[in-house]
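Dear colleague,

Following up on Tuesday's group meeting, I ran the structure prediction for the two-component complex that the binding team flagged. I've pasted the input sequences exactly as they went in, so you can double-check that nothing got truncated or mislabelled along the way. The structure tokens for the whole assembly follow below. Feel free to forward this to whoever is handling the docking comparison.

Inputs:
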Amino acid sequence: MSQSMHELGSGAGATAAPDVVADSPLAGSPSPPVEPPATNRVLGFVARNEIAHRYAVIGVWVLMLLVYIAIEPSKMLQAATFQSIFGSQEDLVFPALAAVATFIVGEFDLSVAFIMGLCATALPVLVVLHGVNVVAACFIVVGIGIACGLVNGFFAVVVGVNGLIVTLGSGSLMLGVSLLISDSQTVSGLSVNFGKIDLYSIGGLPISFFYGIVLAAIFAYIVSFTPLGRHMTFVGASREVARLAGVRVNRIRFLSYVASGLLCSLGGILLAASLGGFDSSASSTYLLPALSAVFLGTAVIQPGRFNPIGTMVGIYFLATGIMGLELLGLGGWIEDAFYGAALVIAVSLAEVVRRRRGAS
Amino acid sequence: MTARLEIRHLSKTFGSTRALSDVELEVEPGEIHALVGQNGSGKSTLVKIVAGYHLPDRGAELRVDGRPLHFPVQPHDLRAAGIAVVHQDLGLVDHLSVVDNIGVGQYHRTRFGRVDKHRERAEAEQALSRLKVSLPLLAPVRSLAPADRFRVAIARALRNLHDGEGLVILDEATRALSKDSLASFYEMLRHAVGAGSSVLVVAHSLPEVMAYSDRVTVLRDGRLAGAGLCTGDLSEQEIARLMVGRDVATVGRPSAPPGSAGDAGIVVRGLDLGEGDVGEIAIARGEIVGVAGKPGSGVDELPYALTGAHRPAAGTLVVDGAAIDLASTDPRRALLAGVVLVPERRDVQGLALGLRVAENVTLPRVHLRGRRHFTGIDWQRREAAQVVETLGVRPSDPSMVAGKLSGGNQQKVLLGKWLVGGPKLLVLHEPTQGVDVAARQDLLAALTAAAAGGCSVVLASSDPSELSAVCHRVIVLVDGRIAGELLEPDADAVVDAVYADEPQMPEPEPRSVATP
């Protein structure tokens, strides 16, 4: 037993990043401090200091805002800029929180953007092309989202295939289906009135912004303060420990996919409502930003854990960065580059935190 | 004669734990040398140091054929010195052929940069013929019988050596071999050893050591308990006694269980671990029943079968009159009946090391004691504080991440997580393995206290001194059945009972090399 601990402790000490793990908690306390290479000192400090660490991303966020304001005060200080940062991200909030629901329990759902895309396509197809009542169509679309979750859950949990692979495949399948039902066209024509469920303005921000805040708050409460949330956390941390403590591990894993499908369908309805229709080929553009935010979120509030509040911070952090860079005159390409780079950095940060905390 | 492998003053400290302390080891050319010790005695740490995974403490010396090797040991230095380590998993690539597996890592190229198939094949043939075995060279390794897979691994280990050179270290590698194939496997090793090569076997099974090794070195708690003893001069019991003999003087055996005859709170019936009915086990309230046996006797399976962690072929567990069908139950149902498990693998099955101590402690009861929409805070604080206090967890901060605690303190948290729920049957598997002496005392004291409070305890352990310290009686398993029962035994009695049956090993070959 202690031997496996020893391996962890000193094995980590032998890896290429000694500053990060040199005084690994598992190796016991009074190991001599190893002088970290200069390049990693900042990262090391952030990782060592819990408080600094918990709010580091928020600090960087504020810093980023200040820099932008200093450079371009006239553009940045307009209300429209803030409205556009906080009012345009709901399309990411739902798939990102859906992904978090699976990540927390140690599963993987890469199909979130495509379930949302399928739902956003199905709604106008039903209403506009097939004349279905819009309320009934919404219920059908929610059913579609849940069905997608059931399919993912069946293969990932019941059959036991790696969730990453299952959802990679099912995501592409869903994209194909949405292209099929829309005949690869943009289907639009949802009523403006219906659009108000997303766009109704409260204090200058669309109502969907508040949906996101409320949803994230409820989600965060469930994870932190209910028995279900505790079970989810343990299933994600160690399936076997959870199983031996009487947790219904597979039920929780399965339901995480279903919950993910449900959240994606709600996101899809709002997305279609705000645009009046949907071009299903755009589905994939929502995946990477959502994942970047989710991983960035592990560095906030509850370091090392996937958490909904952190994910929200991640979403608006990334939106601010991109908005600022675009205002500074960089082209549309910066969005892809920024989200991509953020994903890599966020995952690296999460890994550093994980090692720091002695989790394995 | 210069030793093939010579280790002096080898110590290794992990944080505050001393895993090895001034250990010596000498392997002569042309011998099969066994390294034995209980789990946590330091034998795998020693192998890992030789293989270059760990850096030893200052002052250690390692010489091969008289030439010193420097720490940390580098793979190419090992190869140059002729040392090959075969691990438990053998490190074979299943879907590749025998030739590919033997040649892996050293591809000879032709002039055009392609792998030289002919040369590779010739070398594989040569390596196998030196071991006097023939195998289908192009068959994928996964199609081979387990014993043949071992031959491939050994052939690879010996591939670059000339006759009479080198040392093969088998790190628990023989565990997966059946008794029958062990004989032919060692016969093959004898061919290599007869020519002057050496073998160091890190072994678990004493009959195997007795039957096939020339000399044996025994480790106990990271110290040398016997250095280079001739196996022929020793009995199995004598080696076993060298391996155990830890001091557990200060934990008094609990008084007789309060529940007397007729108050068998727990009964196990018809349990089948794969080799037929184990036999009925009745455990009174407040009784601590030890389970002992060699590896493979069922002692390592019984704890999991009793608690729903693994389903046995058949079996019924009766708790206070309510019967549980073990063949179809799961941990959740066992828990509801008050049956809990402290598993051997603390890091994988016991605790989520990345989460806090308090969260770990309260996990099993969070859905029972908490309301659906709120876990509640006070009861969690109370439970965590109670565990930290009664078991003496240090540092005594329940909000700490469990992985930051030392092994002994983690084990206390794990035990406390179950004790605080007031179980009816507590099943433990190697609860003090790799735990320092002080923590061990605390853990065993907590066990006796729990029993005194009316909990029935099953303690499966490979440590006779631990069994004798706290158990009212010890059940000895042989081949998946109860072979005997000892009342309040001392450690020697447990050792004698476990190793009582004659080793069912084929006669060893006459040893070809005189032991030095």
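The two ends of chain B are 9 Å apart (CA to CA).

Cheers,
M.
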